[in-house]
Amino acid sequence: MADFVQASLRVIRASGHSPARIYTGLALHVAERACAIAPYFLAWFWLSRSAPFGPGVAGPWAWVEPAAWLVLLVLGQMLLSYLGQMNNFLGGYALTIAYRGRLIDHLQRLPLGVFGRQRIGHLASVMTDDVKRMEDVFTHLSAELLASISVPLLFAAMLVWIDWRLTLALLATWPLALAALNGANRFFLARGVRKQKLFLETSGLIVEFIGGLRTLRLFHRAQAWLQGLDARFAQIRQHSMGAEAWGGGSVLVYRIVLEGGLLLLLAVAGWLIAHATLTPLTWLLFVLVACKVLDPLLDAAAYLVELRALVQSETRLQQLLDEPVLKEGGRTEAPPGFAVSYRHVGFGYGAQRVLHDISFDVPEQGVTAIVGPSGAGKSTLLELLARFYDPQEGSIALGGVDLRALCSDTLYRQLGFVFQDVQLFDGSVLENVRVGREGASDGEVIEACRLACCDAFVQRLPDGYATRIGENGQQLSGGERQRLSIARALLKDAPVLLLDEATASVDAQSQHEIQQALSQLVAGRTVIMIAHRLPTIRHADQILVLDQGRIRERGTHASLLAQGGLYAQLWRAQEAMAAPLDGA
Ligand SMILES: Nc1ncnc2c1ncn2[C@@H]1O[C@H](COP(=O)(O)OP(=O)(O)OP(=O)(O)O)[C@@H](O)[C@H]1O
Which residues form the ABC transporter domain (predicted)? Predict the structure, then answer.
């Protein structure tokens, strides 16, 4: 319970929204519950004052006052219930909207490197399922839980006043029952963490399975994956059954101990009646009320599952909120120039060191190409310039200004990107290219597409530039997607261009068209490009050869060939691969 309260308070704090409305709703719910139980005590009170139980004589109109009170209580209960619910709904939704806004804002400020593919399934689950759970808690569960707890407490307060001995008998088993419930809670919480982890891993696998189904089926691996998923489900089932068997036992103990209070009550009442110290009316009241007191407490055990889920969801959301955001620099004006310099840059993913002591300069409007074997750290080197991450050692400057001093919007305004992994959205071609520059006219977008050699294939689409291209542009070929991303970059017209050449994976005609589009794009810009096909960078001003995270060689194409080192080896290897094809 303490975990639940702390988790709820953390959510309230994180949302930055006033919880006044929720508290009002909860207070109204308690008042509503008080109206619901009041008739028992009023009946006891009137009956104990009048015949045959009390000294008074019931007149013909004696029912009028109790009836009026009853009507008043029912009306009050209805009104309080309505107002309580409204306050809880409105307050709960407003708070969770603010909380979700805070999470989205936080996500937006995380370093771009955090959104690696492996995290998308996890993030999607956290941002939908876990936030939805918070919404349910603040709009429904908290009120129901408070009602479950407040009813027994209100009853107990009244019963103590009527007969403390019977009340004591009724309450005597509560501490033991609560201890059993607490034990069950701790047990479920510990098991639940592992179960949730299994769930999250499994949903990540399902996302990956659906995303990669085409490849898996083509390679006849779908069945093997399904077996892997089945094994995961079996693990979850086994884990859940273990948890239910043991945890369910504790809940059963809680219920038995709680209901044992009824037996104790009857025994004490019998003893008191035998000693003539208890009126039959008070005995009747306690017997009637005892079940009403216990019912909500028994219900409270059922909320245990939801409380546990809430605590776990909140933990995951808090972990997300605890992820360090990208430190924003204060400088909002563009740097005075667009030369790039890396100084003693070192970087690693966790314990794995990927870049070591990297220093180089990219002159303004010059083309610097990065080549090297797979896994050498080329993409990482480029991503550091876009602040996907900050270097752990050394610094990177644009126009002489350290990237960390620049506001990220200012930095991104100076950078154009053409990466291998082109992200397209389920909108029209026009909308997708316009992502490059908000507010660009249709004419400007079409002109950029024309320069990027997109016009011909776009015209062939059913509705031309208005054609919707499906989620992530699945209706387009790799080369077409690539050219749309070049059109975007052309439209953005940023002075610095980061290019991850992807022509290796497309056919010769597409390669030619992409090359043509790129030559439009690189003109007059500071360019850093990762090159996979060495012929495309023969004319680069500078070529850096990266190997195992270190710059092994640097120079022009001719000077590197003359050196006869790694670059010359790579060149010869590519020539040898191309030769049979050229000869064919
Ligand atoms: N997000 C990440 N988390 C952990 N390790 C990563 C991540 N991205 C890359 N790596 C690792 O860092 C090393 C360098 O990767 P990087 O993608 O920078 O190399 P690369 O030279 O661009 O390779 P390629 O030419 O195959 O794309 C590799 O060992 C890779 O496994």
Answer: 340-573
